Amino acid sequence: MGTRPGAFAEATNTPVNVQPGSREMRAQAVHRLQVGMFGLAAMLLLVSLASVIMQRVATADRSVVATEPSGSASGAPGSDPLVDLGVAPEVPVAGNAAPHAKVKPAH
Description:
By secondary structure, this protein is an all-alpha fold. 48% of the residues lie in helices and 0% in strands. The radius of gyration is 38 Å and the shape is elongated. 0% of the residues are buried.
């Protein structure tokens, strides 16, 4: 009959209960420590990478905000972006200004 770990008793076909020795216990403990340390190192690396990415995004956002011109994109005060794109008709800002084109009602 074998006494090695995982050996089966020949008559009953059940595993033999063998306690691991001090070397095996130490090897298991060292393996667990290695796995734990690797996991901690991996998490530290991921958090550091995320921090670097977030700092670069914040820096890029600040530079974009600083380089944007104040006011509207066309430079004219009170201009409508939809009119600039040609999507909406131009409506006068002041009530006394005449519109550029007169719209005829459809009959």
